Amino acid sequence: MTKHPGAEKWVPQQGGMRKVRAELGNCRGCELWQDAEQAVAGEGPVRARMMLVGETPGDHEDKEGHVFVGPAGHLLDKALAEAGIVRSEVYLTNAVKHFRFERQGKRRIHKTPAASQITACHPWLRRELEIVKPSLVVVMGSVAAKALLGSTFRVTQERGKRVELPSGLPAVATVHPSSVVRSEEFRRDFERFVDDLRVAVDLLGQEAV
């Protein structure tokens, strides 16, 4: 297996989010850039109090160059609204910045990033955290959990609870919205997802006290 250098050498340590966005497309830290249309940067206020971290861009995100604009993004929008969260006031990003997929005919089907790709891309996420300095992070899905909370963390066991990143930053883990889109128990799982987001809202209020 080819060893990839990781993103460290491409991540600017000086300058703000504009510099990060400008340099992201040059990253060759893993092989995913070869097949993806583009790297997809995070979006939102650079001083957002809440940061939401997902997995990887999907087909829609890869084509449009924006985070959470596909079916999972539309569901996330509805869940945020029900939880009382204004999307334009939070910072949204992914643990991995390039779309990983396999082809089935003409379709590009999402494929979960490998552990090596999550690790290679982590310097970008770490830099986003350094710039935004959120008061709380919502960790959505197992890939984001591996990136931020370690390989032994289990979202199914810890979802909806206050946890801490290794830095001590408060966080709430929940499922990725794409799993709700695919759920056979949609209403139940959507409500559980909204409940987890409400926990994050409550914790954010406590952090402000």
From TrEMBL:
Q: Keyword Ribosomal protein, does the record have it?
A: no
What range(s) does the Uracil-DNA glycosylase-like domain occupy? 41-198
Signal peptide from the UniProt entry: none
The record ties this protein, via Gene3D superfamilies, to:
Uracil-DNA glycosylase-like domain (3.40.470.10)
Which CDD domains does UniProt cross-reference here?
UDG-F4_TTUDGA_SPO1dp_like
Q: Which UniProt keywords apply?
A: 4Fe-4S, DNA damage, DNA repair, Hydrolase, Iron, Iron-sulfur, Metal-binding
Q: Which InterPro entries match?
A: UDG_Type-4/5, Ura-DNA_glyco_family4, Uracil-DNA_glycosylase-like, Uracil-DNA_glycosylase-like_sf
Q: Which SUPFAM superfamilies match?
A: Uracil-DNA glycosylase-like (SSF52141)
The record, for Pfam families, names: UDG
Does this UniProt record's set of keywords contain Hydrolase? yes
User: What family is reported?
Assistant: Belongs to the uracil-DNA glycosylase (UDG) superfamily. Type 4 (UDGa) family.
Indicate what this protein is called per its UniProt record. Type-4 uracil-DNA glycosylase
